[in-house]
Amino acid sequence: MRKSFFFLLMFFICCSACQNWLDEQPENALFLENALESPDDLQALLNGLYQLVHSEEFAGRNALLFAELLGGSATLEGEGFENFDNLQVQPGNNRVFELWSTCYQIINQTNLLLETLPEVVRRYPGFSQEAQNQLTGEACFLRAYTYHQLARYFCRPYSLENADSLGVPVMLTPVINSSELQYPGRSSLGEVYDQIMTDLEQAAANLSTVIVPGRVNQYTVHAMRARLYLEAHAYTAAYDEAGFVINGPFELQTDPADVFWEADSQERVWFTLGGLGNQSTASLDWAYTDARITAKFAQATYISGLSSAQQTNLESAGYQIADLRGPAKPDWLRPLISQDTLYCLKYNRGDTFLDFPLFRFTECLLIRAEAALELGQHDEAIAVINQLRQRGYLVYDSLGLLVEDGYAMLRIESGEYNQAALKKILQQDRQIELAFEGHLLFDRQRERAEIRPGITWDHPRLRLPIPQRELDTSPNLVQNPGY
């Protein structure tokens, strides 16, 4: 019998995750009664899930990096990465296989946790309902997040028109031993998103609002729902979900660099956990040390952020601006982009154990503003633009001294721009705020924008191919068109 490589891989990783799980049992079996006997075993399994999510093969690098390479903001040579920015990714690319196989490891282990939980509850009457809820909520969210990343990368951009197109295999039962290896076909894209929303409903029903660094909570669920609804152009729902997070305990940092460089930043809704919680040795810090920002992206994003009238006013007064979110020029600032706009510095801190942004407060503000704009609430969108720009822009004179209330020269006033112009400003500010955080490709697809010359938002080459190793071993899988 042919064995699917990634399901075998998941099986053996499950077996090796905790050595004391296995007694002298047949090599091809993982017995639940020996593997997950106690609440502590379930918590250990959940901790292992976070390790996989935070790994460089998934959210610790690849899932954030690929969207920027495919979207055209950066280039990275070597080790198979160059094929992403030139849109020549082939089914044999090992980076694609890393993403696919890691995602299905997470899904299988999540299924294992959820299936085993009732039996552990039966064995341990003292297993508190609160602890059960937390395990369930976190597991369901991690599965939803993983399916969403798979759908984004391997499927057409979600819309009601695309709901019947090819999705990814939806797996809801764990593979326990090699005799249970499954060869599922691809569910429809609509079925994948239905499962994502079902998992998020379960997560919302079980998680609390308590914030623990590196772990998910109620706010994370609402942030992800806001992202999904914006993706689907469901603006009222996106507005409401983002509002839940905005009304929470989060706030903008004075300096945008603190979001990435300070572990206690109040903008962190969910970041990967660095330090001892993530033993990755090469992640986004490594990637962006070598990756170069494309000239087109730098020109469109950082150099033309102000209107010609605003630039004229600054020049007439002898003032300049520094954008704390970009290539800030004074020596005393901590830029997030190099002054020559060649390199992203968000992750370049000489430390391999870093936290990386998956959901943050700023994104929720931007979602709320975009939804408000689409709903005709222009003043609310303008307020967010001013809030983020006032935090980002510093005005200084020819001596390098800050100009008190210098942002007054740059403030956008109600009625100054029509909806189309405001939308363009908001899109540009989103590019600046969330640059190199894994959003660019998906933002442009949501906007139905041209990604590259001649490459439309729904072009087949923007979808990753199903790994060849999976096609060779799983008879029910179908490759994406164009490969």
From TrEMBL:
* InterPro entries associated with the record: SusD-like_N, SusD_RagB_dom, TPR-like_helical_dom_sf
Write the record's keywords in alphabetical order, separated by commas.
Answer: Cell outer membrane, Membrane, Signal
Please name one Pfam family that this protein belongs to: SusD_RagB
Q: Which GO terms describe its cellular component?
A: cell outer membrane
Residues in SusD-like N-terminal domain copies: 21-230
The record lists the membrane-crossing segments as none
Q: Which positions make up the signal peptide?
A: 1-19
Localization annotation: Cell outer membrane
The primary location reported for this protein is membrane
Question: Can you give the residue ranges of the RagB/SusD domain?
Answer: 280-446
Q: Which family does it belong to?
A: Belongs to the SusD family.
Q: Under what name is this protein listed?
A: RagB/SusD family nutrient uptake outer membrane protein
Whose protein is this, by species?
A: Phaeodactylibacter xiamenensis
